[in-house]
Amino acid sequence: KHKKEQQQALVLPFVSQQTTMPIYNFKTIQPIPSAGDLVDIVLTRTQRRTPTVIHPGYKITRIRNFYMRKVKFTQQTISEKLSHIIDNFPRLNDIHPFYADLCNTLYDRDHYKLALGQINVAKNLCDAIARDMVRMIKYGDSAYRCKCLKRAALGRMCTVLKRQKSALAYLEEVRKHLGRLPALDPNTRTMLLCGLPNVGKSSFMNKITRANVDVQPYAFTTKSLFVGHTDYRYLRWQVIDTPGILDHPLEERNTIEMQAITALAHLTCSVLFFVDISEQCGYTIEQQVSLFKSIKPLFVNKQLLIVVNKIDQQPWDTLEIEKKQMIEELVEGNTSLMKMSNISEDGVSNVKATACDKLLAARVDSRVSGNKVDNIMNRLQVFTPAPRDEVVRDASIPESVRRAQVEGTYGASKDRKPVRSTAGYAPTKDNAGENADDDVAMDNANVRKTARDLMWENGGPGVWAPDYREQYDLENDEWKFDAIPQIMDGKNIADYVDPDIEKKLATLEAEEEQLIAEAEAAAMGRDEESDLDSDEEALVGVIREKVKIIRKHSKANSSTLPRQVRGRMTDCHDLGARNADGIREKMGEYGIDMEKMISRGRSIERKERGRKRERSLARNVSDDDASMDETQTDGMSKTQQKRSKKEKKDKVKREHSLARSHSRPRDPSQMGLKDEKAVKKVAKEERLGRKKWIGGSGEGDQRKTVHLVKWMNTGKKRMGTHNKR
Q1: Distance of CA 11 to CAs 25, 139, 424, 574, Å?
Q2: Cβ(303)–Cβ(270) below 8 Å
Q3: Which is it for strands 15-16 and 190-194: parallel, antiparallel or unpaired?
Q4: Sign of the C-alpha dihedral, residues 471, 476, 477, 479?
Q5: pLDDT: which is higher, 229 or 495
Q6: DSSP 397-422
Q7: How far is CA 310 from CA 242, 287, 372, in A?
Q8: Taking each helix axis from N to C terminus, what angle separates 109-137 and 143-162, rounded to the nearest 10 degrees?
C-alpha cells in the first residue's frame, strides 16, 4: 500500500488535477545542474549552513560533533538534490502508454532508465560513504584526525558526483525536450490528422483551430506533434497534427514518423486520413492507398474518415475511374468518405462536423455498453402508483375558472394582470384614471389594508413605521399597548416620577427670572461707592484683564506655551528677563516696588564671588604643597621620584572617586570576598558570563580575517583560474 501511494505521489507533478481528465505537463521539471555546478552547490551550502570556527578550548567530543555535523549535512544535501532529480522525471511505467512510447521513441527507454538508475546509485553511494566516515570520526582522538576524515568524506562524495557528468547532461537535454512537448490530454475528445507529407494536414488544422502551424510546399515541414483546440456543440475538441508517414516497413521509419505511429496506436480518437487526388504532394494515389493499407491495423476501434483533399485542383467528378475506384475500395464498415479543399474552404465544416459526430456517438455507445450504466441503473427505482380504494377523485377546478369558461373569457387575454392599488404611486400612461374608482371602492369596502397602504397614508417611507405591538401574544389583548415599565434596583421608575415635575420646573424658572429682573431694576438707580480714584480703578481693570489672560494660559496645554525654550541659542548681549532694569520696569506697571528684591539678589551674587575666590586661594595652597613636595624629593633617585609621584597621583584619583560616590565598596572584605585573587576570579567569571548578551564570538561566526590563508597562497602557481571555496 505504501509503495502504491508513493508511485501516485510521483505521478502527481505531471498530471494536472484541475479537470476530471489528466493533462500531462512536463514544464514543471526543474533544471538539472552539471556535475561541477552540483559539487559547488553542495559545498557552498555546507559552508554557509554549518559552523566554521573551532576554538582552542573545545573538548574532543565537541570537535567530533563539529566535523560529524559537516559530513552529515553534506550527505543530506546531496541526497536531497539527487532525490529531487529522480522524483521530477516521470516514471515510464506510471504514466499514460502514449507518453511512455513517445519517450521511448524520442529518448530511448533504456538510456533514460539507465541515467536515472545511475543517479539513484550515486545517492546510495554517498549515503554509505557518509555513514562509514561518521562512524570513524566518532572515534577520532584529535582535531587533526577528525579534520582529515571529514576532508576524505567530502572528497569521496564529490568524486561520486563528478562521475555522474554524462548522466546529468543527458537528463538536462531530456528535460529541455520534454518541456517543449505540447500539453496533450490522451483521454479527451481528439481528432488526429495523418497521411503522407504535404497532403494538407497542417492547412486543415489552421482552418478549424487557432493554431499557427508552419505550412510550406515541401515535405516534412511538420517534424513533431502539434496540438490545437476547436469548439463543436459547446464542447472543447483537441486536434493533433502529426508528421507525414512514408510507405515503408516499421523498422525503417525514423523518429519523426514514429511520433505519428505512437499517436495512432495509443489515442482513442477520430482519425482523418488525407488523400491528395491532385498528386501535387509528390506521391501518386496508388502510393497513398498503399500507405493506408499498411497502417490499417492502427485504425482498429477508431472512427475513420477518409478526406479527399485539393478538389479545387482536381475535381472528384473528373477524376479517372480507376483511381476513383481505388479510393472508394478503402471505405469499409464505419469508414466515411468526405471531399474538401483548404483553398476554397469547400467542405471543411462538413468534415469537422462529421468527424466530431462520429466520435461523440462512439463515446456514448462505449459508456452505455460499459459497467457504469448497470451500476447507475441499480440505484434507480421507478414507482407506479396503485389505487388505494374505489373512490373516484376528479380534478378540482376553481369557481372563478368555471365562471370564466362559461362566459367565454377564460384565456381570452394573455396580457391580463392582477388589479393592484395605486395608492402612493404616481399614475402612469397605462393606468392613468382607470384605477381611481377601484381605490375609492377599496377604501370604502371592508378590505384589510396592507402595511404599504398604511405607510403611504401616514407620510411615506422614513416617516411612518409599523407598530409591532399589534403582534404581541399576551393573555389579554388590552395589555398590548400598555407602557412597558423600566425597572432599576428592583423598583419601578414610574413610581418615583412626579407627573407634574415639568410644570413645577417651569414655574420655578419663571419665578427666578422675575427675581433677577427686579434686582437689576433696583440696582440701576444707585452707584457703588469706591475708595479708589479713576487712575487706580483703571490700573485695577488692567490687572484683572492680566489675571484673566494668565488663567486662560494656565488652563491651556503646557506644551503650547512653554516657560522657556530649552536648547535655544541665546545672544550674549541679551540680558534676558533677569535684567534688573527690565524687572523694575515690568513690575512697575503693576505698582510693585522691586528695590528690595534687586538688592537681595546683588548680595547673593557677592557671596558667590567670595566662594570662587576661596577656591582659587585653596588651589594656590595646593600648588605650594606641590612645590614643597618637589623640594622633599630632591635627594631621591629618578626611579624613587617617579614612584612617589605615581602614588600621589593614584591617591588623588582614589580620593576624587570616593568623593563622587561611596555606593561601591572597593575593599574585598566589603564586597564579601576574601582577597584580591578572589576579586580577579569574580571579574573573570562576570566577563565570561556577559559574552552572551554583549555579542561575543562563537563557533557559528564567520570572520574574514586580514591574514593570508595558507592553502590559498602556498605551492606552485599555474596558468589559469584558481577556484576557491
Answers
A1: 11, 44, 69, 89
A2: yes
A3: unpaired
A4: negative
A5: 229
A6: --HHHHHHHHHT-TTS-TT-------
A7: 19, 17, 44
A8: 180
Grid coordinates given for 225? 506533434
**Cβ proximity of 50 and 69 under 8 Å:** yes
Residue 582: its H or E element: helix 580-588
Cα–Cα distance for residue pair 4/19, rounded to 1 Å: 23
What are residue 491's DSSP bridge partners?
488
pLDDT category, 84, cuts 50, 70, 90? very high
Distance CA 226, CA 242 (A): 7
Supply the Cα-derived Rg of the chain in whole angstroms.
Answer: 54
- Quick one: average pLDDT of 233-252? 84
Helix (H, G, I), strand (E, B) or coil at 661: coil
Report the alpha-carbon distance of residue 474 to residue 459 in Å, rounded.
Answer: 30
What pLDDT score does 144 carry? 92
List, edge to edge, every strand of the sheet that includes 226-232.
226-232, 235-241, 190-194, 270-276, 303-309, 336-339
DSSP letters spanning 133-178 = HHHHHTT--SHHHHHHHHHHHHHHHHHHHHTTHHHHHHHHHHHHHH
pLDDT of residue 72: 95
* Cell of residue 160, nine digits: 561520486
Residues contacting 474, CB < 8 A, separation 6+: 480
Cβ proximity of 179 and 29 under 8 Å: yes
Backbone angles phi, psi at 112, to 5 degrees: -65, -50
| Residue 235 bridge partners (DSSP) | 232
pLDDT of residue 78: 95
Consecutive H or E run containing 53: none
Mapping DSSP to helix (H, G, I), strand (E, B) and coil, where does residue 314 land?
coil
Percentage of the chain lying above the pLDDT 70 cut: 76
**Structure-block grid coordinates of residue 118:** 545511475
DSSP state of 449: P
Nearest to 203 by CA among 256, 276, 263, 266: 276
For the segment 5-11, the average pLDDT, to the nearest whole number, is 40
